[in-house]
Amino acid sequence: MSHQSALIEKDILGYLDAHENKSFLRFITCGSVDDGKSTLIGRLLYDSKLIYEDQLSLLESDSKKQGTQGEKIDFALLVDGLAAEREQGITIDVAYRYFSTDKRKFIVADTPGHEQYTRNMATGASTADLAIILIDARKGVLTQTRRHSYIASLLGIRHIVVAINKMDLVDQSETVFDKIETEYRAFAKTLGFETILCVPISALDGDNIATKSIRTPWYHGCALMPYLETIDVASDLNGQPFRMPVQWVNRPDHNFRGFSGTISSGTVRPGDDIVVLPSAKRSTVSRIVTANGDLPEASADTAVTLTLADEIDISRGDIICEGKKPAEQTDQFAAHILWMHDEVLFPGRQYFLKTANRLVPATVTELKHKINVNTLDHQSGKTLELNEVGFCNVSTSHPIAFDPYTDNRKTGGFILIDKRTNTTIGAGMIDFSLRRAQNVHWQDLEIHKPARAAAKHQRPCVLWFTGLSGSGKSTVANLVEKRLHDLGRHTYTLDGDNVRHGLNNDLGFTDADRVENIRRVGETAKLMVDAGLIVLVSFISPFASERRMARDLLEDGEFIEVFVSTPLEVCEQRDVKGLYAKARRGEIKHFTGIDSAYESPRNAELVLDTSEVPAPDAATTIVEYLESRGYLKG
Fold first, then answer.
1. Per-residue pLDDT tens over the stretch 497-507
2. 219 partner at 20 to 30 Å CA-CA among 46, 473, 593, 602?
3. Rounded to an integer, what distance in angstroms lies between the CA atom of residue 73 and that of residue 68?
């Protein structure tokens, strides 16, 4: 079944020790759909003699039933394990396979070729040292070839094998091979790859896989397997500054307190000076503890527990760094983001950002440009859609520790998570901290919100009126403010139309502009609450994410959502501004309720339907709500 070694019979322990200490290579196969990625991996497993006899027998049987290669063995069936994959003859999910030869151990990720599964390809690439880009010799370099090459470069892969497959279907043509190689190298010259090897192969027949093929006498390079066994992809993680995110504070008893985690980069020894971020507390390493005893030193990818000479406060999520070369800290940075979700990215919308050691709320504040994967040109845009890559400015609610991704993939990468569904929706690579993160600091003021509110004899809050155009939001808000004014309360109304004459006069009505519209209004309302005011905000605010963002800006109890739930047909009958009629005629685009969605609140503090409750009565209900909960007392 497997490659054989004389040590197995003579010295089994020696064989196991030699096997354990082989070098290790992680690589991915990628490229366009049906270029032969799964077939290639199946062939590598077969040629490595890692298929049991019963597996081979089953493979031969399955090839006759479900295979796509006629009488030949369909090696792709070794990897395409999902029923849907076998039925369609494609790869959907990332399939990981382990195999080894006498010289090296391997983990290979077979990644999907379809554009809709690009996010799965990025997952496989994030931990790979090398990428095999397959190209169908009949089709040449395709858009997905370029996309996968760019993403491999973006995710830090520096070694590429271009496997020009199905050469048997183009009569092993040297001309075809040379043309594809020239085109690919011209495209990839700016991607920063350290090595590119182009190999003519037939994954199905095994040409130039394990050994050089006599059918390509014009090819003078190396066969694929010997190249994978010998290429030097040793990362420079051990030569980089020491980093270890703390995963667990190990305190089995009162005599021991250690900090456990996996070393991301660098080497640590007892006696080394360290600094802990974000606290910037300093100490010295006392011991490096493992289950097998203390170590004199430990390097990247080793799981250890460190004890320190000083009792300093360290928690899960902190990062222990080399004392002389700590990681940077920032709450504003520039990054490349690969968008991985059907719902588009809107600058201004809040997400969770997860790094190697921390989870914080974050906002993409600006999309600087998008990258065209065919030409690598920069293109303008306001949103990122599925599988698009953009260069963005990002702001986090708390500073994070990081290294630039090009220096350290483990401390420079992050993912974005949808706050509502907890779905991973984007992968990011940090480029650099923004200068304003160092230049702009919070100025502590002596007069604070409680003092301002006490002077006004009220509890500040935001009454956020949301509902369709014509629902009666502004009418009710106006009545509420008049009554509060009569009661001697200090208020201000931010109305959707009024704000668009000034603060937001540069915004249109696309979904992206609506998100930014609400973000600005939320920040403005927050400042007014800090001034001690009762703020009335009357905006359609159609998206639940932005209303939640506005709520999260304030303290508990300061955001009161008022859903004016008047039905669409009633709002359209009123049509005070004639907008619905224009939207129905197609004269207005992106009109909420007609061709743009409205996401109704699920847990609003107040729900009022002005088709059933007159506006004056609705205003009375709101004022009574404020009085009963102490907002009008100070």
1. 888 888 888 88
2. 46
3. 9
Specify the pLDDT at position 351.
93
In 467-622, which ranges are E strands?
491-495, 534-538, 559-564, 606-608
CA distances from 23 to 4, 20, 65, 237, 297 (A): 18, 9, 39, 15, 20
pLDDT for the residue 585: 86
DSSP code, position 7: H
Tell me the per-residue pLDDT of 23-81, one tens digit each, with 9 for 90 and over: 788 899 888 877 888 788 878 877 766 554 555 555 556 555 555 555 565 555 555 44
The backbone torsions φ and ψ at residue 203, rounded to the nearest 5 degrees and listed phi first, read -60, -35
Residue-range domain boundaries for the chain: 7-230, 237-322, 328-437, 449-628
DSSP SS3 for 478: helix
C-beta of residue 198 within 8 angstroms of C-beta of residue 181: yes
C-alpha distances in angstroms, 107 versus 80, 92, 194, 410, 629?
Answer: 16, 19, 21, 19, 61
CATH of domain 449-628: 3.40.50.300
Q: How large is the average pLDDT for residues 298-313?
A: 92
Strands 350-354 and 413-417: antiparallel
pLDDT band at 18 (very low <50, low <70, confident <90, very high): low
Nearest CA-CA partner of 86 in 62, 54, 61: 62
Alpha carbon 542 to its chain's center: 25
Q: Residue 119: which of 38, 200, 30, 183 has the closest Cα?
A: 30
Beta bridge mates, 135: 164
Confidence of residue 323 (pLDDT cuts 50, 70, 90): very high
Enter the tokens of residue 408: 């350290």
Q: Measured between alpha carbons, how far is 625 from 605 in angstroms, rounded to an integer?
A: 10
Class of domain 7-230: alpha beta
- Given the DSSP bridges, would you call strands 359-371 and 378-379 parallel, antiparallel or unpaired? antiparallel
Nearest CA to 74 among 265, 183, 204, 245?
A: 204
pLDDT in tens, 363-419: 999 999 999 887 888 998 889 998 899 999 999 988 999 999 988 888 999 999 998
Q: Which of 264, 395, 538, 541 is catalytic?
A: 541
CA atoms within 13 A on the CB side of 559: 19
pLDDT band of 587, cuts 50, 70, 90: confident
- The pairing of strands 350-354 and 328-339 is unpaired
Cα–Cα distance between 272 and 61 in angstroms, integer? 60
Tell the CATH superfamily of the 328-437 domain. Answer: Translation factors (2.40.30.10)
149 is catalytic: no
* Identical fold, 328-437 and 449-628: no
For residue 127, which phi and psi values (nearest 5 degrees)? -120, 5
